Amino acid sequence: MPWPSRKRDKGAAADKKEPDAKIAKTEETQKKEEEEKSTKPPAGSSKSGWKNWKKAKESDAGGEESKQTYCHWLLKSEPESRLEKGVDMKFSIEDLKAQPNQTTYWEGVRNYQARNFLRAMKLGQQAFFYHSNCKEPGVVGIVKIVKEAYPDHTQFDQKDPHYDSTSRKENPKWSMVDVQFVRMTKRFIPLSEIKAHHLAHKADGGPLKNMMLFTRQRLSIQPLTQEEFDFVLSLEEEKPH
CB neighbours of 145 closer than 8 A, spacing ≥ 6? Predict the structure, then answer.
């Protein structure tokens, strides 16, 4: 039996004709002035602001604004017992490993942003299994998405702690995905260690500078960039601090 719910949410033309040589000179001067403007930062910009402005200009030159893409995820689950409406919310990575084919559904998400992240997940993408709401939270393993988003049945179960009386079967509010155990991380990677790197990266522009684990802490489903995923995964090769 799958685990109980436990996841928490141009200007006008000239009036008179001018000699060709003068026109050419004027156009050349205008072109030069425009080029000079395009290579100068806006008035009053700081040095760092100039760097950001220049980077934005270089991005615009490509014709498209650069967009953040997420291809990995972080899923929070509670490894310690906690009753909610008489139902134990506990579900550790060991509990996942004990499921048939080490696979089950990830249900009970009742936050719209987290739900949208669930709906964005693609088959085969990997996620960190993260123990939360416990003495020492952190990353304990890796899972993969084996079934993309479909309606979460617990929203219609009046006995379930996450029952939603406003949701309708013809237009369900909430979704879930199926996940499968991949492997344990080579060591437990605690939140405290990841946070230390996040703070350092905020100062030097490292891959964890904008990690959602610290900007939207309460979300139970969080996206990770390839760089964020790779960096956190690399920590399993290091000795704990």
Answer: 73, 121, 122, 123, 124, 125, 126, 127, 177, 178, 179
Amino acid (1-letter code) at residue 45: S
CATH number at residue 182: 3.10.590.10
Return per-residue pLDDT of the chain as tens, 241 residues.
445 445 545 333 333 333 444 434 444 444 444 444 444 444 443 344 334 433 444 444 343 334 567 899 999 999 999 999 899 999 999 999 999 999 999 999 999 999 999 999 999 999 999 999 999 999 999 999 999 999 999 999 999 999 999 999 999 999 999 999 999 999 999 999 999 999 999 999 999 999 999 999 999 999 999 999 999 999 999 988 6
Position 109 in a domain? yes
Asked if residue 30 belongs to a domain, the reply is no
Instruction: Establish if 177 belongs to a structural domain.
Output: yes
Query: How far is the C-alpha of 184 from the C-alpha of 192, rounded, in Å?
Result: 19
What pairing do the DSSP bridges indicate for beta strands 175-190 and 103-106?
antiparallel
Instruction: Confirm if 59 and 66 have CB atoms less than 8 A apart.
Output: yes
Across-strand partners of 168? 171
In the chain, how many domains are there? 1
Closest of 9, 61, 3 to residue 218, by C-alpha:
9
Could you tell me the residue range of the domain that residue 119 belongs to? 72-187+217-225
CB proximity list for 150: less than 8 A, separation 6 or greater: 175, 176, 177
